[in-house]
Specification:
It contains four helices and no strands. It folds into two domains: 15-65; 67-103. It has helices spanning 18-30, 35-42, 46-59, 68-101. By secondary structure, the protein is mostly helical.
Amino acid sequence: MTESMGKKKARPRRSFTPEFKAETVELCRRGDRSVGQVVEEFDLTETVVRQWVRQAEVDAGRREGLTSSEREELAALRRENRRLREDVDVLKRATGFFAKETR
């Protein structure tokens, strides 16, 4: 199968500033351009733009879900939890090692 027969190349992962996301959401929200037009103009995917719009609605309290700050806090807590579990695992192994040494 050739590439022109429906297979799309994977896009390289890009990151966007919060300001860019907010401006993009505002363009969609104002109504002068559709999501599709914004997607075309800025070479974005429709999925990501719709996610940004949805998240902006959550942050503004117009939609249920975790706000951006809650998502950041949750991610930080998960990282900390993972690190603490690794620390506990190391301490358990060290305790076992030293318990053998003292016998």
